[in-house]
Amino acid sequence: MAGRVGGTQQSPAPASVRLSGPSAATGRWILLTTVLGSSMALLDSTVVNVALPRIGRDLGTGLAALQWTVNAYMVTLAGLILLGGALGDRYGRRRIFVLGVVWFAAASLLCGLAPNAVVLIAARALQGIGGALLTPGSLALIQASFHPDDRGRAVGLWSGFGGIGAAVGPFLGGWLVDGPGWRWVFLLNVPLALVCVPVALRHVPESSDARDHGRFDVLGATLGALALALLTYALIEARQGSVAVVVAAVAGPLAAVAFVMVERRRPDPMLPLDIFASRQFTAVNLVTLCVYAAFGGFFFLTALQLQVVSGYSPLQAGTALLPTTILMLLFSARSGALADRIGPRIPLTVGPLLCAAAMLLMLRVGIDADYATDVLPALLVMGAGMVTLVAPLTATVLASVDNTRAGLASGINNAAARAAGLVAVAALPLLAGMGPEAYRSASAFDAAFRRAMPICAGVLVVGALLAYATVRRPVPGCRHPECHTHCAVAAPPLEPRRGDLP
User: Fold this and answer.
1) 259 is in which domain, residue-wise?
2) Of 255, 237, 246, nearest to 427 (Cα)?
3) Which topology term describes how it sits in the membrane (predicted)?
């Protein structure tokens, strides 16, 4: 059988798999593997927020523990995702992808069995490491395996199935929390991995980059993750005013400075600072920080607001958030095509303003909020804004650098978005005056939510002004995204790390 790995016949050589003909079966197995693997991380990013109130009640935790449940995962994922892509290029994309899936599933099992919040948070950090290994590998496996003539169609199928998974995620998460319980939000990853790993080992050809012989920037990755972790700790625990908080508040920026110094001096840095010589690249990443900080705060607090204040069940809250994902699934590719014609400046200005308007509309969502008249209008406007800006943002990032660095640029942009989201989840409750037990009181949480949404809207307005002032039309012939359909809300889509894969 074509595509067997370790059997009597060898897999097709990298970049030779087709979607029709003798290697079509291998192509279908590769798509199944990558969809299953990426779905694990994608589902996790969409369903955990819905489960937070039930997690807090069952484990007897305060708001800080719920923030850490989200952010422990994001710290390790954002800090190590660039390193994960480099490991795949060096040691084999399939090998690192499979390692990531196994690691992610093992950490998910630990999350599902966690007896208390401390174990859950530690397991979430481990889960982020697995995510950093498997997330870059999904699209890279497709890029490295499929023939160039079929690569675009394969990426389209992968992103389309991923979009369906993203649309199902909040509904599935709510159903699991209401039914078997919140632990199954994590335990669901185990059967997915049990299918994904054997299929990958048997049917997916291995590939690597023979030119990649530099040393791994483990020190840089460690310092980056440490800086994020310390800053997050200082923001989440700021109300305590303890010595540990002060130490973290000082050590976090120092770790960030050390990270920059290490990256500047290393011959093979994880984050080559010269990539920021492109003013457009720097500007778009600043816009990304604003946009995804607001998104991170919005989706974290809205899932809680709908349950704590409006009285929605987890299933109702998860289903309520579907319109944004469905709009992204249906229209993100068309938005990218429109931006190609008119340039990215207008979409990157109008999109954040629409999202800011949506967050102000969310002020209508209070006690006994009606879905059709209070919640849905805000989410439709939010979805329209995300459709308008996400695809052009990704395209502009890739167009801002040399083609051979497009994958690196995409990884940096993705990591920046995740870092912005985790800082927002840490800082927004503090800025909104949300106490540690606020999520147990409808009136207290509603009051803080009404202070938080204008803050998010203001950050989006800043992003829109930055885009209007700094973003220009890309040069002709620049690199375009491989992934045209995008439905995740945590970060922009990733591209393969190498811009010149065979």
Assistant:
1) 218-265
2) 237
3) Multi-pass membrane protein
